[in-house]
Every structure is written in structure tokens, then in C-alpha cells.
Write a structure and sequence with these properties.
extended, two-stranded antiparallel sheet
Amino acid sequence: MEPYIKCAECGPPPFFLCLQCFTRGFEYKKHQSDHTYEIMTSDFPVLDPSWTAQEEMALLEAVMDCGFGNWQDVANQMCTKTKEECEKHYMKHFINNPLFASTLLTLKQAEAAKAADTAIPFHSADDPPRPAFDSLLSRDMAGYMPARADFIEEFDNYAEWDLRDIDFVEDDSDILHALKMAVVDIYHSRLKERQRRKKIIRDHGLVNLRKFRLEFELRREIKRLQEYRTAGITNFCSARTYDHLKKTREEERLKRTMLSEVLQCIQDSSACQQWLRRQADIDSGLSPSVLMASNSGRRSAPPLNLTGLPGTEKLNEKEKELCQVVRLVPGAYLEYKSALLNECNKQGGLRLAQARALIKIDVNKTRKIYDFLIREGYITKA
């Protein structure tokens, strides 16, 4: 506890003594009672004559712990100053102080110049891409919408829900009014955290398509070279022969698959006719994908690959299968699931219309998620 004694001759590491041991002439190892010493204390003013250095540090720690604006909690943690004194002192010396403001501005300009080369390469005159929701490009950009500088799924995406039922009326008691204001303050702190995370992403160029596209190409090339090494190939001449043989084997496998299809369809006349028409279209130059689109009217999307997506490890096997079929990233599914569970617990049950009002995505996806949660017993019908 302050004040305490620091030996000026011992160290490193520094040797400290409490006042009681110092007055008794305590000696330990190399430390002797006749060594010169320093009195360590923070009991002196720094920015304001009525505030000691120790109180300044306690104020900064309290603001960091309780959050900016929660002055009553800050005062309770400090114990030596009132709510008004904490707010007035912090705003005067740490927010509106011209010396600190100029220093912070210089630091901000230096950081901006340092990060100029790594920022997102979209400027005001550019026409950034606008990928469709849940498309491959949208997933590569983590759901980032450059034209709006927003994400489809924001950090703490349901922070606004805590405010939807709050209404300030004149006959509110002081305690109820203070409680509502505290909720608003908490919401503001969550918005600041959302903006802080966006700034980190923007300043460090974390949504940089060209960088990630290059990374993808490098990973693909590394995977190809690893395949060569596994096959015992040590030069590019052998690699070309390997690729040619691999292509030939693939063609032979497709022929065997075609034969198996013929054998399966030969007992069904309609299926046989459909297969013959498909082969005739392929021979005339139509690709199988175009043929599939023309026959069915709409090509079904392949299952979503969950490998490496955040939140996958939190899903069970059935939930993984649902996300793959519905093509929904695990993080979004977990938020939708949490929102539906909370609403079901509040209401004692949940209808499909309520689920659609809560999670505003494609109605078919909402129906599949709702049916899945009902079937697995997570929620109950109202």
C-alpha cells in the first residue's frame, strides 16, 4: 500500500519495503538498512489540485471497467468522488483537453497513414460489387456490403431488441426512468463496440477480395503440388503425364456411370426416353447444366460447404445437415435459433408467422428452420 519504500541501490528486480519493515530496519539478502531509498506515492496532484495521481488512475480504470457514461457506477467503484465530480473531471481533462486532443489527432493521422496501403480498396468514385445474399462472393466478403459499409449480419445483431418495448412516459417513477436510461446507455455501448469492430476490419483491410482470391489460388496450387508429392512425382514432366492419366481415368469412370444409368433406366420406358433425350442434347452441344436447367426449370443449388466457417463446431450433426441443405452459415443459424428460443420462452409457444417476423430472411428458409426446431423439440407451437 502507498506510500512504500523502494531501495535505490538494489535491483533489478526492484526491492520494495512497506513502512513497517522500513522503520524496523529490515534487511534481506543484499539489501541493507543503510541503503539510499525513494518514497513511492501517488498522493500528489497531476491535472487538478483536488485530484491525486492515484485517483486519476482509479478514474481511468473505473471508466474502462464500467464503460463511458456510466458515471454512477464509476463513482461507486472509486468511493472518493461523486458521480458529478467524475463526469466533470473526465470530460474536462480527458475529452475536451486541447493538449490531449492534439496528441490523439497526431496519433490518429499517423495510424491512418500507416494503414493506407492495407485499407479496403473501395473509394468514393468506385462501383463496389453488390453480391446477392448468401452467394459465393457474399460469403467471401463475410456478408460485407461495400456500398453501405455494413454487414448483413452485424456484431451483436439483436442489440436493438432490448429497446423495442421501451417507452418514455411522463408518469414514470425516477427509478423506472433511470432504469430505462441505463438500458439506453448499454445499447449505446454496444453500438460503439460494433463501430469499433468495423473500424478494425476497415483499417486492416480484412475484407480485401483481391488478397483473399490470391490466397485461394495459392492454396489450390499447394494442394495440387501436395497431390503430386503423395503420388511420388518429382518433376513437372511426370506431373503432365499424371494429369493426362487422371483425366483419362475420370472419363472412363463417367462412361461406367453412364452404363449404370442405362441399366437402371432400361426397365422404365419414361426414364429411358428422358435419358435418350439428354444424351441427344449433349451430342448436339448442350452442356449438362444447361440441360438440367431446361428440364427442371430451376437448377438446385449444391449443399453449403461448412468447412472452416465460424460456429460449425457448435452444431450437432442434424444442425449441420440443416445448414448445408438450407445454405445458411452456422453463425446466422445460431443467432436465429437463439432468437426463436427466447421468443418461444417468453410467449410459451411460437407460430410460424411470429418466426417470420423475427428473422427476416427467405420465407422458405424460415419455414425449414421453424419445422426443424419444432421436430427436434427446441420450441413448441403456440
